Amino acid sequence: MPLPLYTPHSRPLTTLYSEIEQVAGQLGTVSPGTPGNVVVRSNATGARFYAHQFYDADGKKRERYLAGPVGNAEADASATRLRDAIISTGTHIKDMRLLFRQGYYRTDERAYAAAASLHNHGYFKAGCTLLGTYAYGILLNHLGVRAAVYQTSDIDIARGETLKFSPPGTAGLLEVLNDSAVRFVEAPRINVREPSTSFMNPGGSRFKVDLLVPAKVRSKPFQVVEVAEIKAHATSIPHLDYVLAETFIAPLIAREGFVPVRVPVPERMAWHKLLMSALRARESSKSGKDFEQGCVLLAVVGELDAQAVVDAAAHIPDAAWIKLIARREAIRDALTPHPRALDALDEVDAARKSSRPGRKRKRS
After folding, report:
1. How far is CA 292 from CA 138, 255, 304, 338, in A?
2. Of 25, 144, 325, 345, which one's alpha carbon is 20 to 30 angstroms from that of 118?
3. Which H or E run includes 89?
4. Where exactly are the structural domains of the chain?
5. 260, 251 in Cβ contact below 8 A?
6. pTM exceeds cut of 0.85
7. Which of 208, 271, 269, 267 is nearest to 235 (CA)?
8. Residue-wise pLDDT tens digits, 94-115
């Protein structure tokens, strides 16, 4: 019999993590590096101002202007808020060390810095959603389980509807990413005539950020689409609107701290991962990773809340469901150690069959 796809964390650990989730939802500006500290500096004229000093993703000491002049009510309030945030973060970092030792997922320094900058500029609040392996790790933490998470050098962020910022207007995506203290440039495409949909960290690093949007119905997927409100272009992905339909805010945790990001609900991400696995059947490495992650999420949610699996499946388009049918037996085999998840899968199958057009209903 196959081994279970995940291991549940203990109740004390999940309680500790839930406290971090609650705090993350209330965070204001987040440091793109270590929490650092507030220092007072003077300019050439002798005017004193506040600065934020911290270490960035590359371990270099940075210093940024915060507010001024010292003694101004608004500037003093800004410095106080940042000091309070630094103290709070420092307290929770101690808790996160315990979580990391027990197998909770944590992100790397560059991904944390990029996510912090996106948060600080209101991207996640406006509707931007984190996808891919980083979102998968966050969902494992949220569900209170431990499973294998493969390292990745790509961050996938998606935009469904037009992002609406409050207040209106924001910096373009490239400018926002560079505000993370990690340098980004547009990644060249194979077709040099097409605008870039990825932003890479140059100098030998493989780290990059990919921007995605849903492919329109009856249009060819994997096309370049303009995203005017953030002065960028994205790659269109099939059925992405399905996974973006239900999202929530959860913390991305790292050695430096934590930042609130938007991620899909786990049941929708599970089905979308399995669908992408079927669509990427010729790309064995990506297909295999998507299949494994989809099965893990389906197993966890199926055991915790089977109805969520059924409800999420009801919204899968028929054209996409046909692709999933081909992987049905492989999914069942993977879920063998999780009987409640298998029951949920059977209920999904029954619901799909009963909803077929033209099928006669039995008389009661």
Report:
1. 16, 26, 19, 14
2. 144
3. helix 73-101
4. 265-354
5. yes
6. yes
7. 208
8. 899 999 999 999 999 999 999 9
